[in-house]
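Students often ask why we bother encoding 3D structure as a string. The short answer is that it lets us treat folding as translation between two languages. Here is a chain of 107 residues written in the first language.
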Amino acid sequence: MQEELQAIAERNTANAQSVTRIAQLIGRLDLSAISNDEQGFDFQFPVNDYGYLVHMLITHPWLMAHKHKWKSESWQRYSIRLSLLTGWNVQKDPLKYCFESLEKGQK
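And here it is in the second language, the structure alphabet:
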């Protein structure tokens, strides 16, 4: 039992040293050189407010250019992509409904 505990302690020490080394390497990176396409994009999307989300997607120039729905993209995949943008779980059915309602309203 003591040998097993010693082995676990050695693995934990090795893992801690690895994490420390990784942190040191990350600390040396020049993060200012990394280009962020969404830099300056500071909108906050209210959770589950699909109306506001869809309104922004069709009116905001940056969103229209970068976050529009591709013709070959499923509603499920699009909702996943928008979830990454909004920070909340965008569901495909309400999203699709809002887009379709908006299209009917514009006709």
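Translate back mentally: The radius of gyration is 23 Å. Keep this in mind for the problem set.
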